[in-house]
Amino acid sequence: MYLTTVFGNLVIIMAVSSDSHFHTPMYFFLANLSFADICFTSTTVPKMLWNIQTQSKVISYEGCVTQMYFFLLFAGLDEFLLSVMAYDRVVVICHPLHYMVLMNPQLCALLVLVSWIMIVSLFYCTSLGVYLSSAVTQSSHASAVASVMYTVVTPMLNHFIYSLRNRDIRRALKRIIG
């Protein structure tokens, strides 16, 4: 599943960057979401796979803090990019004749930059509360299943949901693959 997630999202990034028909705000945001999904999945899954392979569940405190930082950073970035994508769709539906003027390249880049800035600032404000709060005891099996669903399955399905249902993306992929 991890390789499917990484490969699927890399294919989307490659298709969007290589075909000039996809140099539109919607696909710009989709490529950024694909990049964020690759990073999000790569923060935890390689360590999890290593732990399964070595039958070891040890992680250093510094490793844990670093992993949590990037996990929360990319999870939040996913949420903000999905919000920006929703805003893009609202503009195209409500103001179709002004869409290209309203969603110009500068605004698109600014929206992605603001997404990054917002998530970094939100992370620093809320992470303190997470680390200071007491841990709630849960079943470790239930936690593991929930973690896999959230960190692997959702990013794996994003590229199917947002792009492979799109006829233009499928045509571009056929051209790229041959």
Automatic annotation (TrEMBL):
Any one GO CC term of the record: plasma membrane
Single GO molecular function: olfactory receptor activity
Signal peptide range: none
Membrane-spanning parts: 68-87, 107-132, 144-164
InterPro entries on file: GPCR_Rhodpsn (IPR000276), GPCR_Rhodpsn_7TM (IPR017452), Olfact_rcpt (IPR000725)
Pfam family, one: 7tm_1
Keyword Cell membrane recorded: yes
Keyword Membrane recorded: yes
Gene3D superfamilies: 1.10.1220.70, Rhodopsin 7-helix transmembrane proteins
Coiled-coil positions: none
Entry membrane topology: Multi-pass membrane protein
Keywords, comma-separated and alphabetical: Cell membrane, G-protein coupled receptor, Membrane, Receptor, Transducer, Transmembrane, Transmembrane helix
Recorded family membership: Belongs to the G-protein coupled receptor 1 family.
Name by which UniProt lists this protein: G-protein coupled receptors family 1 profile domain-containing protein
Organism: Ailuropoda melanoleuca (Giant panda)
